[in-house]
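for the record, two folds in this file. i put them one after another cuz i was lazy. first one right below, seq on top, structure tokens after. the second one comes after a little note so u can tell where it starts
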Amino acid sequence: MAVFSCMGGDMVVVTAGEAKYPRRDLAPAIKFMYLMPLSLYILLSFAVGFNINYGDPNLAHTLSKYNNGISPYIIVLRSTRFKRLPHVMNACFLFSAYSAG
């Protein structure tokens, strides 16, 4: 799973040559490859949106003079009792950004 998340959707087509029944198995694999990340992003966006206050001063509002807000995911994680979790998530975000291209 980790290799496919770093590569594009064309890897499904490349590995289809190794499948026993590629005509049957390729369509569900492609749907899973694209629908799973999209659905998780939408689900996480709703979860964060329901757990964060709009008036939080750490959010980046368009009316502010300097747009230096913190990620909503990190703001929500700061409200938990796990004090190191926001730092771990920031490290994951940075690693993901640096390894993307």
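(here's the note) second protein begins now
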Amino acid sequence: MITDNSDLSSLRIDRSKKASDRPSSGWWKWIVALVAVGAIVIGWFVLRSQVTPATSVRVATVSLVTGNDAAADLVATGYVVAQRKAEVASKATGRLEFLGFEEGDLVSSGQLIARLDNKDFAASLELARAGLNQAEVDSLDKGRKYRRAQSLLKSGSITDSDLESAEAAYKNAQAAVAQAAAGVRVAEVNLENTYIRAPFDGTVLTKNADVGEIVAPFASSASSKGSVVTLADMSSLEVEADVAESNLDRVHVGQPCEIVLDAYPAVRYRGQVKKIVPTADRSRATVLTRVAFVNRDERVLPEMSARISFFTDTLSLTGSGSAAILTVPKESVTSRDGAKVVFRVNGETVSIASVVTGKEIGGQVEITSGLAAGDRVVLSPSGKMISGQKISITQ
């Protein structure tokens, strides 16, 4: 059967179409998308670790304490204070005319330190003495007249009234002498008040006024000086330390101590508790304790900071046989969930470490477990600090 050619051509296979024109599967698109998402997530974490700002912290090193510091039953800090100290001033007001001492000079009790311009007081004293002389002469004259009146009354030359007048005049003259004498003493005191003398043996700590300045009691004006020098008795130097109320039962009068001045950390002074002041500071929960020097030299000066180690007995003060202990600053220890912890520095991050604390040694606290010598810990960690937190160390 014969058919049309056009119908036969429709049955022919068209080989001109390319393989790329055929529909294909989309699985590879999902693979590319997953790879892209993974790269973004990894990049985000990497970028976050680099961009997250580091927390600025101060750090301290765990130190090993030996000798007397380790043997001490309690350690406190305080300051050297002169128990006999005075701001030496004048009772008079005037211009400072003479100043005979500088800082560090030694003075003796009653020695003249300074003098005010006192020409007016000296003139007042001369006037008072002249008045006294006049009163004494007048009293002498009135006394003679009184005795003469007594003789005339016996001879009947005068009346009783004349004798009484002579007697009254004589007694008034005697009272005037007494008054003039008192005026002389007042003038002498006023003149003496212009001389500023040392109240006790001591050392001049500071010079508070210079020649030419106005000195006034209680510094009554802004331009005047209240005191000329500050004087201290160096033999009365003691250390005043604040002992926490919780540690007060470990301190008693006569207890042996060791004093170390911050200025001379290698020098150790023997001391003993002299007095425990019978009152507490409610704001700091401490009690003031005074420690006297057993041996002291000229290097000990007022207002120096010191560390005092309290011992149970004199033998403990030698520190012999005392095991070394680890200490950290008290401000590095904090609490997390009721436990004492510190944040240990690990490179640029921190990790939390549980610790067991012991006795306090001044501003340090003993660590019995949880740390090793040489470890670095964060000082005053914030309440939001966590393990792994990035830090930057500041001085």
